[in-house]
Design goal:
By secondary structure, the chain is mostly helical. The chain is 60% helix and 0% strand. Helix 2 (42-51) packs across helix 6, helix 2 runs antiparallel to helix 8 (167-175) and helix 9 (185-193) crosses helix 11 (219-234). The longest helix has 20 residues, at 138-157.
């Protein structure tokens, strides 16, 4: 379990091993992409951050986002600018979390524990929780994190599926525009192939950040380059 503990400084040798593999395997860094995320759409940030944990992104998250966008566009709305209030209204229009899951075509749960809430229910809970601390838009989220990151993190960590790991929290920030790393299984596999031992998510994030500095790119750009490389390896 990693609850966002302070990470250890990665060794110079390990950083160099990651940098070396990045240079040999990830192609020309001038062609690495800066992931767009959803800087104007808190609703999409929440949906993506919650649904992406523990699943194949292309098979499960992409269809959920596609259906949500279609649902909102059918009403003449712009899903790319939806905030927490619009997300809650969309779920309510479906009759609540169960109907929302049905409309999104995905009834996955937040864990394998018996009776665990669905991810649709977690999305609704997250939107409500953020609203209670006056965070309804992506801009408000960024402002709140800048002012009190720990306070906002505690609100997010109370959401089902987000308690025991900081992956979702880091990814939420990345999606909203922060220079973050999502230290999930894709990143872990890449770092393991570089000779890294089993690392906490905090240590994985620190290692990617250190390698990004050496490579002269942002952490989010390197994170995305690694993710695309690992996805291609699994294709």
């Amino acid at each position: 379990m990693d609850t966002g503990a302070v990470s250890a400084e990665p060794s110079a040798a390990l950083v160099e091993a990651v940098v070396s593999k990045c240079r040999s395997e990830l192609g020309d860094d001038s062609e690495w992409l800066n992931p767009a995320g959803y800087p104007d759409g808190l609703a999409l940030c929440v949906l993506d951050a919650i649904w992406s944990l523990g699943v194949n992104y292309d098979h499960h998250v992409v269809p959920v986002l596609r259906r949500y966008r279609a649902m909102r566009r059918a009403l003449g709305a712009d899903p790319n600018t939806d905030g927490a209030e619009e997300l809650l209204a969309a779920a309510d229009r479906c009759g609540g979390p169960d109907g929302f899951a049905q409309a999104l075509g995905n009834h996955q749960r937040t864990s394998t524990r018996a009776g665990a809430p669905t991810k649709a229910a977690a999305v609704v809970q997250a939107a409500r929780a953020l609203g209670t601390v006056n965070i309804t838009t992506a801009a408000e989220f960024r402002k709140a994190v800048a002012a009190d990151a720990k306070g906002v993190e505690l609100v997010w960590r109370a959401v089902p599926g987000q308690v025991s790991s900081d992956i979702g929290w880091r990814y939420l920030q990345l999606l909203a525009g922060a220079d973050e790393v999502k230290p999930d299984r894709m990143i872990a596999r890449f770092l393991t192939s570089c000779g890294a031992p089993a690392l906490t998510t905090s240590d994985s994030s620190a290692l990617v950040r250190a390698a990004a500095v050496r490579l002269g790119v942002t952490a989010r750009v390197l994170d995305h380059a690694i993710w695309r490389y690992q996805r291609a390896q699994r294709a």
